């Protein structure tokens, strides 16, 4: 609540002086016994008669507040954005459980992807997961919470073991091919070399190029020997052992270059965060914001209450509770 003409509030100061003076001076009153013991009985009539004069001061204070024009203001923002369509394609093969990241590559990839989604309020985002095959985990949507929820649900073992990079990209491209957006992007995160799938990465990249889809490829994982899953146990868990990781950097570079995107290498969680931050800057949505300010006045309420109190004070003083004053 604000006041459009707050200067009128200065009139409240002189209103306080008579009230304080009357209170300090006191008044001479004549009490009449109301019962056999001579003790006054407090009734609502006597209460109103005693405090009737205060209604005038309250009414005058409300009139001053009405002249100050109390009102509520709020702003409405209308956003016009050239939104992007973005598909995140994440590798969920067993090697993504490798422990060169804390606690593993997949957990870090999910966490950083969730943060990236949070920074894209106006875009449509979707999610594809791939291993030896690929599937759409979440179609394009503007609901960030839905996409983030699906990212959290990603787990290893839902698909056959393997790394079908071409299938991961082709499935993402398929979700974007009918998009009317001017900018269509795929961010593909993997930690290995292509060894499965009936669509090769080169073929998938050619299709993306034809459809005007830009691909950012991200290689995640450190080099050398890493504690990685070697065998799946009957209960679904994995047996870990040191393993030399194989990574096809050249393939991911060619895929990104062919579609006008970029290749990134993430050796740590901080690297991966920096990669997503750079992609966020490169693919920033153009936003036009128009602000409309609205106000609602409440002086009418104060004015009505003030008039009502003055009427009550006049009727009470001259009609209902007429009394003789002793001066």
Name a few traits of the molecule:
alpha/beta; 11 strands; Rossmann fold; elongated; 327 residues; 6-stranded mixed β-sheet; 9 helices; 3-stranded antiparallel β-sheet
- Average pLDDT rating: 83
Count every helix, treating DSSP H or I runs of 4 or more residues as helices: 9
Q: What's the level 1 CATH class of the largest domain? A: Alpha Beta
Fold-level CATH name of the largest domain: Rossmann fold
Please give the alpha-carbon distance between the first and last residues.
44 Å
Supply the CATH architecture of the largest domain.
3-Layer(aba) Sandwich
Main structural class: alpha/beta
Strand content is: 25-35%
State the domain count: 2
Could you estimate the helical fraction of the residues in percent?
Answer: 40-55%
Rg (CA only) = 37 Å
Explain what this protein looks like in three dimensions:
The chain is an alpha/beta fold and 327 residues long. It has two domains: 97 residues; 201 residues, 3-Layer(aba) Sandwich (Rossmann fold). The chain is built from nine helices and eleven strands. 33% of the residues are buried.
